[in-house]
Every structure is written in C-alpha cells, then in structure tokens.
Specification:
The complex is a heterodimer of chains A (286) and B (258). Chain A is mostly helical. Chain A contains twelve helices and two strands. Chain A has one domain: MetI-like fold (Orthogonal Bundle), CATH 1.10.3720. The longest helix of chain A is centred in the first third of the chain and has 33 residues. Chain B starts with a helix and ends with a helix. The chains are: A mainly alpha (286), B mainly alpha (258).
Chain lengths: 286, 258
C-alpha cells in the first residue's frame, strides 16, 4: 500500500503534465486536421479528408504537387545538410579524439553551440548581406560581390552551422569509447590507413554516427526560423508552410494536417531506424 | 597526418567562430551601416540600454527560464525516479512521451500548443497567451530532458547502496534523503542546467505560445531582424554571447572541482 502511494506521488505529476500539455494538444491537432477553415479562420466541421488531399495535391480540379514539391525540397535540404555535417563533422570529431588537447578543443567546439540560436542565425545575415562581411572580403580581393542574402545557399550554410555540433558530439563520444587496439591489430595484420579505419574503427562508431545523423536531420527538416530569416520569404520549406498557416493565412486545419504529415515522416523514419538498430536503438541517442 | 588534422581543426574552429567574432567586433564599430572598421565605440550599448523596454524583455526571459527550470527539474526528477523503480502498465508509453521533444520537430509541438491554448481560451474564457503559457509549454519540453538526464544517472547508481541503507534500518524516506538524492545530485544539477540553457535558447516554442506583452529577448531579436539588422542588436547579441560563455566556463569549473 505504502509502495503504491509512493509510486503515485513520484509518477503522477509528471505523467499528468505530459498527458495534458503534450498528448492532448497532439490529439486536438489531429482532430483539427480533419476540419475545415470556416469564416474568420474558425475551424468548422464536418470531418473531412480535404486537408490531406490538398497537401498531396489531389484536390478537385486536377493534380497540383505544390506542397509535395515543398516537402521533397525540405527532405532533400535536410539530407544535404546532414551529409555535409557528416563530411565535415566526422573528421573534426576524429581530429579532436586524436588530439593532445582534446579537453580544450571539445570546449571550444561546444562554446559557440551554447550561444543563443537566434544570435547564431542572425550573424549569418551580417556575413551574407549585400554589403556584408563576405562581400567586403571579396571586394578586398578584387572579386565581384555575391548576392547570397536572401538565398537557399545562405539558409543551407546557417543550418549546417547551427546543427554541426549535434553530429560532432555523439561521433566524438563513440570514438572515445571505441577500442583502438583493434586499429593497432589491423595495422599489424597489414592493413593500410584507410582499411584500418574502414574495418576496425568505423563500425565501432556507427551508433554515434546514426545518433548524430538523426539529431541533425530532424531539426533541419522542421526548421522555419533559419529559412525565414536567411531566405527572407523566398525560401519555402515545410516548416514555413506550417508557420504561415498558423500565422498570416490562418488556416489552422490545413496547418495541422501539414504538421501531421511532417511528424509522420519523422516518426516513420525513426521506426525504421529503431528496427534497423534493434531495441536499444533509440536509447543510444543519448 | 597529425599536421593535417591540426590544420583541419583550425579551419573548422574558424568556421565555428567566424559568425560570433563578426558580431562581437561590429558591436564596437562606429559605422552604423556596412562592415568597415571605423573605430571603437560603446554607442550601441548605450542605445540598447536606453531602449525603454529592453530590461523588461531581459527580465521576462530570465523569469520564464528560472520558473521553468524549477518546475521541470522537480517533475522530471520525480518522474525519472518513478520510471526507474516501478514496472507498471503504460510504462512504455510514458517512455515514448519522454522522447517526443527529442524526436519531433519543435514546430509541430509549438503549433499544437498554440491550438491547445486557443481552444482552452475559447472553452474556459481566461486562458490568454502570456508568459504563463510560455512557461506551460516549455516545462513540457524541459521536463522530458531532465527526466532523460536523471534516468541516465540513475542507471549508474548501484542498487546495493540503497539495499545496504535499508538493511541498516533506514526507512524509505531516509534512504532517499541520505543515499539516493546525494548520489543523484550531479544528474539533477546537469538536468537543471540543460533545462535552463535550452529554455533561454528556445525560440520556436516561445514564438507560438507567447502573447502580446510577453516579449523575450529571442523574440525581440527575431522581430528586429525582420526589420533589418542594426548595431544595437549586435550589442545585445554580444552580451548574450558573453553570458553564455561565462555560464559554460563556470559549469566546467564546477565540474572540475568535483
């Protein structure tokens, strides 16, 4: 009896909070995604699939892939950012793990990452704008100025910059935990540098790589702030579509449907990941 | 190879610090437009502090973050203890809910909370978007992060210690007070620090749950940026950079002491 009371005291407050402020809002949004935008933007019934049909371009009057194109662009964008984060981040994690000054280097890598998110994004406007730092530098070299703000390139660079540490840290942790004597053994067996890395080290760090990939891909897929600020309205990703429906457009049912499509995409991907990695796959994230 | 790695590290550090260095340097630059160095000045800091409401925004940010940290740390720690100790129906679902903030893009949770608060306002009539709704929304997020961090720490505590305390006649509360909590303290502290930092840093949840009159510093930066960049924003960013840097270094120092 006492045990039961204790369990209730420990579990109830947090559980209630999560149910009330996470599950209920999510269910409410699911319900809303089957309604329609009424006059003055107030959602009304009857229940309909129209929002989802519209998202997938299957409205009356023919196939219109507008939102599918945006979704595809967002996925390609997030995949591109993730790939570059991997190409730049893995060597960085490796260099830190091999360095004599790994403590200091790790601190140096983490520091900018604790700087306010918005400040970091804002800084790239200052760099990329027409009379910004980059063009001042190019001008000093006698080169033509570039018009990178607003542009998809600017959004891409800022997103990569923002989420790169999310990849470096888990990969570094994996490298630190790895059994490096296997690499020695590979050398002893006559492997060259690449073969030793490929067969003795890389497989050991894959859980860290997967975790890092997810931690970069998911926020990159859902971003609307970076595309909004550095794209200045010209770069539209799925996050911007959702934000606009809840902002200026005020079509909450369609916004809800778009949010659910995004969430389903992410959770579906995670499900595949969990199946590929086994039961402990998700816990490895942290 | 070593030299190549060192060179590469330097290049990446340049990339990581370039934006920050640019902002800090420009905040002391006399030139209002453009990036040419025209001499050192503190004008932009004076202008920033003479902004009539900037201190109010800073206060909002800090109060929200402190309240959130307190609630989220308490609820998250309790939840972690409960999840760790008891096996019950729905435990898996609860674990799943904890990982929602980690795996679902924050914009999805942000708009869901916006809908929820709008709906509450319609049915209850008094639920206006304000600092209060920002807090409600954030705690949901940070509570999950605290619970995950504390669960991680709990996994490293040997159950024998708690059993030994019980064998020595300590009651459940005494065991919690003198054995479990002291062992857990670093985890709780780490969770609280994470919650505090994430909540100061957060923009998306705040953006969707804030109402008129509840502007925080990130919201202010966002609003100003949409109107174009300005040296006052450089100055404020520099202050934020200084604060977070001091925070991280302080955290390191505390860790080293242990």
């Amino acid at each position: 009896m006492k045990r039961r009371l204790e369990a209730v005291i420990l579990l109830l407050p947090g559980t209630l909070w999560l149910l009330l402020f996470m599950l209920v809002p999510a269910l409410l949004m699911l319900y809303l995604s089957f309604l329609q935008r009424g006059p003055h933007g107030i959602p009304t019934g009857p229940l309909t699939l129209a929002n989802y049909l519209r998202f997938f371009g299957l409205e009356e009057g023919g196939f219109d892939p507008l939102y599918l194109v945006i979704l595809g662009r967002s996925v390609a964008f997030a995949a591109g950012v993730t790939l570059l984060a991997l190409l730049f981040g893995y060597p960085l994690a490796y260099a830190v793990a091999k360095s004599r000054y790994r403590e200091t280097l790790l601190l140096l890598i983490v520091l900018p990452f604790w700087t306010n998110f918005l400040v970091r994004v804002y800084a790239w406007i200052v760099i990329f704008q027409r009379k910004g730092v980059l063009n001042a530098f190019l001008g000093a070299l006698g080169l033509e100025p570039l018009t990178l703000y607003p542009s998809l390139t600017a959004v891409f660079v800022a997103t990569l910059y923002t989420y790169l540490p999310f990849l470096v840290l888990p990969v570094y942790t994996a490298l630190e935990r790895a059994d490096w004597s296997l690499v020695e053994a590979a050398y002893d067996l006559g492997a060259n540098r690449w073969a030793a890395f490929r067969h003795a080290l890389l497989p050991q760090t894959l859980p860290g790589v997967f975790a890092g990939v997810l931690l970069v891909f998911i926020p990159a897929l859902g971003t609307f702030v970076i595309s909004d600020l550095l794209g200045a309205g010209r770069v539209v990703l799925i996050g911007n579509v959702i934000q606009q429906q809840f902002g200026v457009v005020r079509d909450w049912p369609f916004g809800s449907a778009a949010a659910y499509v995004l969430m389903t995409l992410v959770l579906g991907g995670l499900y595949l990941y969990a199946r590929a990695m086994g039961e402990r796959g998700l816990e490895r994230l942290y | 190879m070593r030299r190549l790695l060192a060179l590469y590290t330097l290049f990446m550090l340049f990339f990581l610090y370039l934006p920050i260095a640019v902002i800090v340097a420009l905040s002391f630059n006399q030139s209002r437009f453009g990036v040419q160095w025209k001499g050192f000045t503190l004008t932009w800091y004076e202008r920033l502090f003479s902004h009539p409401r900037i201190l109010e925004y800073a206060e909002n940010t800090l109060v929200v973050a402190l309240v959130i940290t307190a609630i989220a740390t308490l609820l998250g720690t309790l939840l972690a203890l409960g999840l760790y100790r008891y096996r019950f129906r729905g435990r898996g679902l609860l674990f799943g809910l904890l990982y929602v903030p980690v795996v679902v893009p924050d914009i999805v949770m942000g708009v869901a909370l916006l809908l929820f608060f709008a709906w509450l306002r319609e049915t209850l009539g008094f639920f206006r978007l304000s600092l209060f709704t920002i807090i409600l929304g954030h705690v949901t997020y940070q509570l999950a992060y605290v619970a995950i961090v504390v669960l991680g720490r709990l996994a490293t505590i040997e159950p024998e210690l708690e059993e030994a305390a019980a064998d020595l006649g300590a009651g459940r509360l005494a065991t919690l007070r003198y054995v479990t909590l002291p062992l857990l303290a670093p985890g709780i502290l780490a969770g609280a620090l994470l919650a505090f930092t994430l909540s100061i840093d957060d923009f998306v949840i705040t953006f969707f749950t804030a109402g008129p009159g509840s502007t925080t510093l990130p919201l202010y930066i966002y609003g100003s940026t949409k109107r174009g960049i300005s040296p006052e924003i450089h100055a404020m960013s520099t202050i934020l950079i200084a604060v977070s840097t001091a925070g991280v270094l302080l955290g390191r120092l505390v860790q080293k002491r242990r």
